[in-house]
Amino acid sequence: MSEGKYFKFAIVIEAEPKVVWEALTNPIFTKIYMFGCEVVSDWKLWEPVEWKGAEDGIIYVKGILLDYEKEKKLSYTVFDPNAGYKDIPENYLTTTYLIEPSEGKTVLSISQGDYSKVENGEKRFKESIGWKMVLKGLKQMLETKVDEKDLEKNLD
Q1: CA distances from 90 to 42, 83, 113, 114, 121 (A)
Q2: Which residue among 37, 62, 142, 149 is least crowded, i.e. fewest CB within 10 A of its CB?
Q3: What DSSP character marks residue 141?
């Protein structure tokens, strides 16, 4: 039996898990590192999660929330409605974030797949290179631009 094809990556971020969590789930911050997209969700299981362009209002990625364990785990399906693939469950990938504290820092692990089961999976897997830019932007934002006090100010 094959293990499937997944994009897997982990980074260490010099920030507390609650700060990393906020950056993943708050549209104020996602638009900074996620190509200008704001995450839109009520964060209830089996409800929609969308990444909408902050400037143009276009939904670039959509999915359903599968798991939500505050400051620990976030998992949802993802599908690009603009890519020309059939919008059927078999064409959705699953993205999972695991957040683990480590000596005042956070290890953020990301997994996305299974590319072996979706239409044009190999092509879509090669396109997942964008994740590296997203993660680099997230890390840079949290380590150089946003600290816990900034997060609290923006949430008020």
Answers
A1: 24, 15, 11, 10, 11
A2: 149
A3: I
21 CB-contact burial (10 Å; exposed 0-12 / middle 13-18 / buried 19+): buried
pTM, whole model, 2 decimals? 0.87
79: DSSP letter? B
Quote the distance between the C-alpha of residue 40 and its chain's center.
12
Whether the upstream peptide bond of residue 80 has omega within 30° of 0, thus cis, is: no
What are the beta bridge partners of residue 97? 74, 110
pLDDT, one tens digit per residue, over 96-132 is 999 999 998 999 999 999 999 999 999 999 888 788 8
List domains and CATH numbers for the chain: 6-146 (3.30.530.20)
> In sequence order, which residues have a C-beta less than 8 Å from that of residue 152 and are 6 or more positions away?
none
